[in-house]
Amino acid sequence: MKLENPRALLSSRILDLLTIAVVAAFLFPYLFMVSSAFKTRLDTFAYPPVFWNFTPTLEHFENIFSDMNILFYMKNSTIIAVFSTLLTILISIPATYSFARYRFRYKEGVAYGFLFLQMVPGISIVFALFFIAGSLNLSDTHIFLIVVYLLWNVPYAIWMMRGFVEGIPVELEESAMVDGASRFKAFRLITLPLMAGGIAATAILIFIGVWNEFSVAFFLTSTEARTMPTTIAFFMTHSGIKWGPMFATATIGTLPVVIFALLVRRYFISALTFGAVKG
Amino acid sequence: MTTVRQPRRRRPPWLAPALLIVPAFLVVFALAAYSAVWLLQLSMVKLTFGDPFRTAEWAGLENYNWLLFNEFTTFWASLRVTAVYVVGTLVPELLIGFLIALLLNRKMRGNSVFTAALIIPMVLMPSMVGMVGRLYFSPYGLINYFIESLTGVRHNWYGADLALWAAVLVDIWEWTPFFILILLAGLQTLPVEPFEAARVDGASRLQSFVHLTLPLMLPLIMTALILRLMDVLRLFDVIFVMFGGGPGTSTTTLPLYIYRTTLIQRDVGRGSAASVMLIIIIVSLTVLLIKLRDRIRYEA
Question: Model pTM?
Fold first, then answer.
């Protein structure tokens, strides 16, 4: 480290503190939410708010597991998110390879076509989907949500993964093909293992998206296929909002997502920009 | 003269790439086309939500006509709320995000911890964020506690004049990190040479920021704004959970308008027509802005 004059050192320390303060400010509402899941009703409504000196309680967690059957909704969310993600990846890998490795007419046009369909707001077609589900006898089923989510997930996966494939030198595949491998074999043995990290990251990000999705799931499910995010309606009762169980559900529902997100944080900037910006 | 024989009959060159795209294409475009046909059909009928589809009466373009031109239409009011919400979220998010990105763009220990922390607001379940926001903005909630400690007054965030701004603040909390992370990635990949040249020429820090950093970052800023605009225009969950479009129509952005028209007023026709308008608005704005960005990028 090079020697700096005291004034520069001081201003750099001030900037460090400022940075920490800013980051803490973004983290604070989340931490306060998690802590509220362990507070009694009295502590939740205390004014001024109670930040740390309260006796933690697990009553809300017991409540949501025994009375509200939260496991059932977690199971629904898991089934829908896992299968929709797997189907998405399966369908998207060949298309991704095609966009990344071949040259053909209207390529960018088709790619943008996918992107524009990705932009269609869930709320704008959810009531049409409601009628479609009714006409197909698929109302309130897992399979309908799994398939419907493909509309947004497949374009997203193609745009995300295309960047990963394009980042792998095509010469690697070509040299394998010179050695007699078929194009498919070259892809399977060379490119696929190299893009495994990218595929995993894409899958996790899609899982997060489906796990969190509200607008479509809320109007297309009622009892059988109801997902975690849509359980908020249960906390609004005639005797007021059940805040404790709500905080407990929010804490449990966001925990896997936060862990997953931190696992793939290296890919996060690509994820936010459809692969347009590398982190 | 001998003709050179092809070693074997070649497949047309477009066949392989086309076949690889077919599954994705079929799934996505079939879903989209099926939904589009239903949506357009629903937007041209008179139908009460809850009644079977066979009771629908053909209405042609009457629903669109009502939304756009009827003297009692609330569509334009909702468009105004949407515009306020879009500008109210995107402008502060960009400005604050850029400032914090500049702050984080220094060599400092723990930078990866900070970026990890900034990811969290963006990945939380929006419906839960909305519920939590509702409590934080309640009369004796967290937000009023901080405001009262600083200024001595509490605000009624549930009232018609502040509700939209409470939703705006929640969005700023959730999505300013989006700008921070993207712009930070951009700042870290800026070319070094022009800045050194400017320093040699005696340019001040402010000058090189205005004449180098800003123009070089402009395409990225545009990209970030376009992506956020798409998302803000279709945002439904947080506002729905916090306020449901109310009180009155103060938080009825276009997505909330679609919900209220279809489910509360039970007018499927007008709700679907409004849905079509939302899609048209989002797609046309995005195409326009992508063209604008590419022109800027070209000139840069």
Answer: 0.92
